[in-house]
Amino acid sequence: MSRIIAIDGPAAAGKGTLAKRLAAHFGLPHLDTGLLYRATGRRVLDAGGNPADPATAAAAARALQPDDLARADLRGPEADNAAAQVAAIPAVRAALLDFQRSFGRTQGAVLDGRDIGTIVFPDATAKLFVTASVAARGQRRWRELQARGVAADLEAVTALIRERDAQAAARAAAPLVQAPDALPLDTTDLDADATFARALELLSDRLGTPAR
Ligand code: C5P
């Protein structure tokens, strides 16, 4: 069976960086599933639509093309907000399910998101649930923005993280929950290298040595 590594957790917990490194280590493709929601929201905005409207958002999700995920404008506050809105719509989530499952089916994959271990791949080979304190995640997101030359206020960035946590936990469609068989990894006091090392330790039982 293809190996699937599912990495879930809240915004800015370090999932993306970790997922990329694990993918390279185990020789697997990587999918940042947040990009699917961001690209869907972006498509709706481009067409002048309302990302909270279920029919409009679901049509945009069904029309998504692989190239949409490579767009350079998926990270700003506008796309962020539109992504959170479309992600709460069950028809959008249903439309994106096939894409995620086909991505992993043939070669295996590392996927990071919010519902990979619970809904997309409940039978994943290994599951990690990556968390960090709100303060640590606010700091990280703020540093990322600084590095990209985007002026931002730490308090405002942290408040937005808190708001996204509340939205992801409260939504009826695929709320953010830890799968019962997911291994927890708290990255509050870990940098990217230490997070990667800890993840390898946690995964060693399930995945053994890397495919080379
Ligand atoms: O992880 P990222 O911040 O890019 O996610 C963008 C949006 O998509 C967030 O609002 C998040 O809750 C949502 N999302 C989701 N399910 C996923 C990945 C992301 O609902 N598997």
Explain what you see.
The protein has 212 residues and is an alpha/beta fold. The chain has one domain (4-202): 3-Layer(aba) Sandwich (Rossmann fold), CATH 3.40.50. The protein has 9 helices and 5 strands. Strands 2-3-1-4-5 form a 5-stranded parallel sheet, with helices on both faces. It is globular, with a radius of gyration of 17 Å. Cytidine-5'-monophosphate (C5P) binds at residues 11, 33-34, 37-38, 83-84, 87, 113-115, 164, 168. Cytidine-5'-monophosphate is lined by residues 11, 33-34, 37-38, 83-84, 87, 113-115, 164, 168.
Write the layout of secondary structure elements.
Layout (H helix, E strand, L loop, with lengths): L3 E5 L6 H12 L3 E3 L1 H13 L7 H9 L14 H11 L2 H16 L3 E5 L2 H5 L5 E6 L2 H14 L6 H17 L12 E4 L5 H16 L5
Parallel strand pairs: 1-3, 1-4, 2-3, 4-5
The structure holds cytidine-5'-monophosphate.
Entry keywords:
Rossmann fold; single chain; five-stranded parallel beta sheet; alpha/beta; 53% helix; 212 residues; 9 helices; binds cytidine-5'-monophosphate; 11% strand; globular
Q: Could you give the distance between the termini?
A: 17 Å
Report the bound ligands by name, code or SMILES. cytidine-5'-monophosphate
State the CATH class. Answer: Alpha Beta
SS elements, strand count: 5
Order of SSEs, N→C? EHEHHHHEHEHHEH
User: pLDDT below 50 for ≥5 consecutive residues: which ranges?
Assistant: none
- What proportion strand? 5-15%
Q: What is the share of helical residues? A: 40-55%
- In which order are the strands of the major sheet placed? 2-3-1-4-5
Biggest pleated-sheet summary: 5 strands, parallel
Given helix and strand content, the structural type is alpha/beta
**CATH topology tier name:** Rossmann fold
CATH architecture: 3-Layer(aba) Sandwich
Number of helices: 9
